[in-house]
Amino acid sequence: MSQPTPEVYESGRGMDAHNEVMREIRARNDESYDPTEPTRVWLDEDNTPDGVRTSLTIILNTGGCRWARAGGCTMCGYVAESVEGGTVAHEDLMTQVEHCLEHEADTADAPAELIKIYTSGSFLDEREVPAGTREAIAQTFADRERMVVESLPDFVDREKLAAFVDRGLAVDVAVGLETATDRVRHDAVNKYFDFADFEAACAEAREAGAGVKAYLLMKPPFLAEPDAVEDMKRSVRRCGSVEGCHTVSMNPCNVQRHTMVEELYHDGGYRPPWLWSVAEVLEATADEDVIVVSDPVGHGSDRGSHNCGECDDLVQRAIKDFDLRQDPSVFEEVSCACESTWAYVMREETAYNQPLVR
Ligand code: SF4
Ligand SMILES: [Zn+2]
């Protein structure tokens, strides 16, 4: 006679159910992408442990994240932008890098000091970026000061990081932790790993002589505004206490295409967080021993973090100012009548009546 097991119990429930829904939503996407073009590239300025630096951010188009192929995170639409078929050849990846260098040469006065490479997955996953390509990319940017490479905790490995560290680069691994609360990460984000795995990745990075930049997600689906704010304050503090994690990038969830968040949004069940909430977390955690930055994507739009429409640009500017200076007094200079509506949401919104105000 068959015995009940946790696997049987889980079948069709929890993560299993989330993955099934996510696979179905993603299957509706029929766009395809050129393997020789990067997904995106742009120039900016970033706050690093050594001060503010000019940066070149590259989103490489790889085969996409393994976890996304299984179903993946409820808010993540990046895999929809990845190349069909699961892998991109070395030559194509290097052509993408060439295009990024051309963009930099055309737009910037001088080469960026900081290079950030994201892949809509894990740069350190061999299946996305083979060892030889990793080496070639490290060589290409060996004359820069610092590099950030994105990876899930599983793939953080001192030997892989040595390709960069041994070339004299300051290296950070960008880990999409999303929240320090395992229950929220599992049930609301549908991300499989635990905080303990993040801590282990930080220790491994430290062994390699690298640092960690944790990416947090404010307000995944199913969390009300006040719960989302609390979750972020707690998460920033917990990240700050992990040795090796020197920066937290705390970003409000936005509504990306082909995601569960988008389904909920269309059915009136999701509103991205208020920009006041972002300001509240940055202000409340400013005294923690960790750099905290935020970059609200699509701010002021219905699909991005927004307030009333009148004050969005003002609050966004204060957030960008905070990113570079880490001075919470920047928020004293912004105010708007909609703060009282936000305060009402913070008092009254719950998981079952959200969104209280759109
Ligand atoms: S958020 Fe990261 S781990 Fe989750 S599906 Fe997207 S790329 Fe994969
Ligand atoms: Zn306002």
UniProtKB/TrEMBL annotation:
Cofactor: [4Fe-4S] cluster
GO molecular function: 4 iron, 4 sulfur cluster binding; catalytic activity; metal ion binding
Keyword Metal-binding appears in the UniProt entry: yes
Keyword Transcription regulation: no
Any single GO CC term annotated in Swiss-Prot or TrEMBL for this entry: cytoplasm
Domain Elp3/MiaA/NifB-like radical SAM core: 55-284
GO terms under biological process: tRNA wobble base 5-methoxycarbonylmethyl-2-thiouridinylation
Keywords, in A-Z order: 4Fe-4S, Iron, Iron-sulfur, Metal-binding, S-adenosyl-L-methionine
SMART domains: Elp3 (SM00729)
Record protein name field: TIGR01210 family protein
